[in-house]
Design a protein that fits this description.
about 5% strand; mainly alpha
Amino acid sequence: MFSQDFDFQKRALNDLQQENNQLKEILASREKLIEESGMFLLTDNEINGHDEKRTSVLPAGLVAQETLSLLNSLGKGSIDDKLKQLLTEKQEQAEQILQLKAELEQEKERFKEFEQILKRNDSQTATNSVETEQQKQLVKELTELRNKIPRLEAENLSVQQEVKKNKLCVN
């Protein structure tokens, strides 16, 4: 009976060793696959942010390198806390973007108003410039006419005198 019990336990040990070796191969294969894909395993402590003395070595999550870097850059705490922090930052940024868009629209409106004012001023300036040029031309012509008046009066007087002479001569 002792011998039978011993043989039974020996077979059970043999079976357990084979199963253990298979599990080791499966774990090694999984680790290799995870490493090749650039992923990292997180333990429950890393996920929940517990700094307990009893640490679990069993993986509870799988993340990419970028995700791991991001999570590590957010400091200590659980993934849930870190995600809440990211969500809060995202919401703040979204609000800031909306505020900046509103400010941009206000500035665009102000710019349009200034453009309209400038166009009106430019057209007034152009009109004023044309009017000023026209006024200068009129002043010049007026001055020329004023200068011509005495000369024309003198010519008129001389023509009148010649007409009188001619009338006297004809008579």
